[in-house]
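Sample pair:
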Amino acid sequence: MYDAQIPAVPAADVPQDAYVLDVREPDEWAAGHAEGATHIPMSEVVGRIEELPRDTRVHVMCRVGGRSARVAQYLLGQGRDVVNVDGGMTAWAAAGRPVVTDDGTAGTVL
């Protein structure tokens, strides 16, 4: 599915205070996302890379891990400290991690 050299972490093991980058589409984000995550759709990452921290590990997430792996590969190539969240939002929700909407209410994974 993706390059095995991309560092990955299970969704259940993402630290509570981690910087999480959600690269899903706006409708997926609106339905539900990880609490505290940052949203930059995959198609916008190259143009918005300067919005990402340089001194913090970035945990990249999508629905199941494919898109986020491609973004993680790109960010690694740019010298960023990055890991792919294995299983994405599907695994995040299955691990019992909070999924919320922008107003803080319970969300769902599309």
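The chain has one domain: 8-97.
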